[in-house]
Amino acid sequence: MAQIHRLIALLDKTDPALKNIPTLRTKYNRPRAVAATHAILRLYYE
């Protein structure tokens, strides 16, 4: 979990636009975690 928080913080610094990505709300109501996951998947699959 700490790794996720560090990753989100890093993404916030490197790509502020990520905060504006519309995301589905997870059952834990963590849309920024979803945005971070989407960003990681894009990096791997681009």
Q: What portion of residues is helical? A: 55-70%
Low-confidence stretches: 24-28
Class computed from helices, strands and strand pairing: mainly alpha
Could you give a short account of the major beta sheet?
none
Report the span from N to C terminus.
Answer: 25 Å
Number of helices: 2
How would you spell out the order of helices and strands? HH
> What is the tally of beta strands?
0
Oligomer: single chain
Gyration radius over CA? 10 Å
Describe this entry's structure for a reader.
With 46 residues, this protein is mainly α. The protein has helices at residues 2-14, 31-45.
Q: How are the SSEs placed, and which strands pair?
A:
Layout: H1 2-14, H2 31-45
In short:
The protein has 46 residues and is mainly alpha-helical.
Using brief descriptors, characterize the structure shown.
46 residues; mainly alpha; 61% helix; globular
